[in-house]
Give the backbone structure.
Amino acid sequence: MRTLITGGAGFIGSNVALELEKQGHEVIVIDDFSTGKKENLKEFKGKVINHDISLSLEIEKIDAVIHEAAITDPRFQDDTIMLKKNLDGFQNVVHLAKKYNAKLVYASSAGVYGNGPVPMKEDQEKDILTAYGKSKLTMDEQAKALAESMHIVGLRYFNVFGPHESGKGRPASMVYHLAKQMLAGKTPRIFKMGEQIRDHIYVKDCVKATLLALDAPSGVYNVGTGIGTSFNKLIEVLNEVLGTDFKPEYFDSPYDMSTYQVNTQADIEKAESKLKFKPDYSLKEAIKEYIGMI
Ligand SMILES: NC(=O)c1ccc[n+]([C@@H]2O[C@H](COP(=O)([O-])OP(=O)(O)OC[C@H]3O[C@@H](n4cnc5c(N)ncnc54)[C@H](O)[C@@H]3O)[C@@H](O)[C@H]2O)c1
């Protein structure tokens, strides 16, 4: 299979690219390196094209596209640019997949659920808090309209963590930021009062779901573990893995809390039945594996 991975120099994209290549497939990466890093592709043997896919997208025949490229920081400073770049990129990817009758898997986000009820189900009412969430929901709506005419699968990733995320800076996961502080012997700092909840999913499980999506029926699926873990609890798990006893220091959130998701937790029933996806890693097992790579 000849697969194009957009955003393949980024966190999730590079993990997908390396796994697909390991499985013996031909992989082409396209990335504008706006947040992607060359070092994420150190072991990658395939072709890497440096290009902004929101401008145009031409490539020789491919069998599948895995579309990870996007402005991924929900706090990106310009909503208009965010929407335009993410949606133009998506349009160009759809056009390319249609041209070659290729399978298309794209990254949506749990951001579309905002502060809606948990566990979050694919068809529940959406709560759009940011332009980022709006860009992802627009993709999902366009994908729904296209599903009759092509293979198109959207994956609503929850909070992914793991190797290759350091290049993201502030938008990297809480697992990464808290582990970094604790590994440096510093008190982990979290917003008051640490009871914000996230469905933390290890990038290896996220890659597994993404590859399963190539053979799943068109549609939109949650990619999470189904388990919500508070930041306070996450610090406890990090303490257990590191053999430390840090207590969190709480501070006021510098963000506009009306745009902040307080609790995310996936309902994974649809992913289990249609995507055939079940995560392999518990939070603790994943952190144990990841901690030495931070
Ligand atoms: N990491 C998470 O927890 C998470 C959660 C939900 C959804 N997602 C989605 O998953 C996808 C991958 O996210 P990530 O965490 O790996 O982020 P990332 O920022 O590491 O990866 C995005 C990649 O896309 C590239 N890119 C951005 N705009 C581009 C453009 N116009 N043309 C070409 N390349 C471009 C960047 O340089 C980067 O390499 C994104 O679509 C993101 O919205 C991620």
User: Anything to note?
Assistant: Residues 6-7, 9-13, 31-36, 52-54, 68-72, 85, 89, 107, 109-110, 157, 159-160, 168 surround nicotinamide-adenine-dinucleotide (CB under 6 Å).
